Amino acid sequence: MAQTGVAGCRQATGGGRVAVVDIGSNSIRLEIFDGLTRAFCPLFNEKVICGLGRGLKSTGRLSEEGVEMALVNLPRFTRMARGMGAATVDMLATAAVREAENGAEFIAEVERRCGHAVRVLSGVEEARVSALGVLAGMPDADGVMGDLGGGSLELVEIGDGALGDSATLSLGTLRLLDLAKEGDGAVRREIDRGLERIGWLERLRDRSFYAVGGAWRNLARIHMGQVGYPLPVIQGYTLSRRDAEEFARVLARLGKRSLVGISGVARRRQDILPHAALLLRRILRLCQPNQVVLSAYGLREGFVFDRLPAEERAKDPLLAAAADLGAREGRFGDLGALLAEWTGPLFAEQDPASRRLRQAACHLSDLAWREHSDYRASQALYRVLHYPFSGLDHPARAFVAYAVYNRYGRADAAKAATARALLTPQEAERARVLGLALRLAYRLSGGTRALLESTKLVLQDGELHLVLPGDGSVPLGEAVERRFQALVQASSAGRGRIVE
Fold first, then answer.
1. Which contacts (CB < 8 Å, 24+ apart) does range 252-256 have?
2. CA neighbor of 325 nearest in space, from 383, 408, 391
3. DSSP helix/strand/coil, 156
């Protein structure tokens, strides 16, 4: 069967919407993104678990039931994409389709019904694109990506924004499910044989393992529920190797009946989760990474990222998304860069990572102006905590959210407990100071650029000065004085005055 790599895909024109249909061994999925920009955001996402690869190891053919389900749902996917105005609709098929005896026949029927060509990715290309997805969401990733699908496991070394060695192993969850008929020992031996053949995996020791794929995401959701984790966001969820290995050990021993009673277990994944857990445990024991990091980004996001111009790929994903959101939802456009400069004197000793988070919070600081005044703080907090940002871990997400929450006031401190639980007391206080500074900036200027540009903060000899123009163009009032004093009390200055 002919195989076509991603390199030959056509480009979307005019920044139009991009639809990617992922025909996987266990599930098929449609994801529609809002355009070819670094801040690409999913507009629509639908998944159907067909199990195309069920029984493939023993029969050599795609599952008849899976084929039937796919042929019903794939035309729906492409019609939905066209109805949503997608400039391109790219259909990608992976391990089960490329290996099955009837794969070519299935593809021909899909193309006939959908009116779109299907690109069957090689194992090498599937690994590369999935790893690009991890880098799209975590540019600083350093270690090895593992993308566990129904038909295969792709492993790629990543670091310094680039891809290294890669391998594709026939260790997908559906293959392991077939192998389990021969006993648990057979599954373990097959996993170890496959992993031990990859000599470069020893380079994973004391680095990070980036877990991609629905089965491992489901494991992470179960773990969140078991430990009472405060923020149910998969992207960037991190476990120490010790915790991940122990959790995987317990889950690998559970039967389907036991899994039914656990919150967070998808019904159609109940039979494959113990094998996904066993595979994760063997990787951790053999390769000794220092932590496991979950990535919600994978093949589809990597496919879009691969098509971006070089200058777009080089952008910071967090700042690109925050600036885009600020421009679209701020009352008077995005004031992020100006606010970052305006608040700078309060944080003169900040390192680059801290300055980056401050800038992101500044971009997002007018996010909730449409909400009722009683709920702006809590709505802004919730939205930033759960928005599909990339390029930040959970504590960083909590910092930005808590800063924006404080920009709107602390109407209900209990609702900020999630963010505070992920921050040290020092980080929480810095976020609060930033929020108070932003609150003052908006009270001074009403969110308008011209008024804000004519004022500034100056920290001089331990005293904070709010400098206003002498012509009265930025009027002083009780609300301004009150918010300035709140900022002075929270900051390290200790004292302050307003200078006209």
1. 252/277, 252/278, 252/281
2. 383
3. strand
CA distance 303 to 134: 11
> With 0-12 CB in 10 A as exposed, 13-18 as middle and 19+ as buried, what is 56?
buried
Q: Which of 425, 318, 363 is nearest to 38 (CA)?
A: 318
Measure the CA–CA gap between 464 and 114, rounded to whole angstroms: 65
3-state secondary structure of 27: strand
DSSP class of residue 6 equals G
Decide if 218 contacts 301 (C-beta within 8 A). no
The pLDDT tens digits for 361-408 are: 999 999 999 999 989 999 999 999 999 999 999 999 999 999 999 999
Residue labelled with tokens 């089965």 = 215
The one-letter code for the residue type at 167 is A
> Is residue 159 classed as helix, strand or coil in its secondary structure?
strand
8 Å CB contact between 267 and 93 = no
Half-sphere exposure of 481 (CA within 13 A, CB side): 6
Rounded Cα gap, residues 125 and 5, in angstroms: 6
- What type of residue sits at position 123? G
> Among 447, 380, 369, 445, which Cα is nearest to 415's?
380
| Helical pair 241-252 and 273-287, crossing angle rounded to 10 deg | 140
Of 218, 301, 308, give the one whose Cα is nearest residue 15.
308
d(CA 249, CA 271): 16
The string of pLDDT tens digits covering residues 129-187 is 999 999 999 999 999 999 999 999 999 999 999 999 999 999 999 999 888 888 778 89
Please tell me the distance from the alpha carbon of residue 145 to that of residue 403, in angstroms, as a whole number: 32
- How far apart are the C-alpha atoms of 278 and 248, rounded to whole Å? 6
The DSSP secondary structure of 191-259, one letter per residue, reads HHHHHHT-GGGGGGTTSEEEEESHHHHHHHHHHHHHHT-S----TT-EEEHHHHHHHHHHHHT--HHHH
CA distance 304 to 36: 7
Residue range 73-124, pLDDT digits in tens: 999 999 999 999 999 999 999 999 999 999 999 999 999 999 999 999 999 9
In whole angstroms, what is the distance from residue 401 CA to residue 124 CA?
39
Output the six-digit token pair for 148.
């566990």
DSSP assignment of 305-335, as one string? HHTS-HHHHTS-HHHHHHHHHHHHHSBTB--
Residue 91 belongs to what H/E stretch?
Answer: strand 86-93
339 residue type, one letter: L
Q: Which of 375, 323, 350, 500 is nearest to 433 (CA)?
A: 350
- Which residues have a Cβ under 8 Å from the Cβ of 444 and sit 6 or more positions away? 451, 452, 455, 474, 480
Place of tokens 């790599």: 5
Q: Which of the 8 DSSP states describes residue 333?
A: B
Q: How far is 482 from 60, CA to CA, in rounded Å?
A: 74
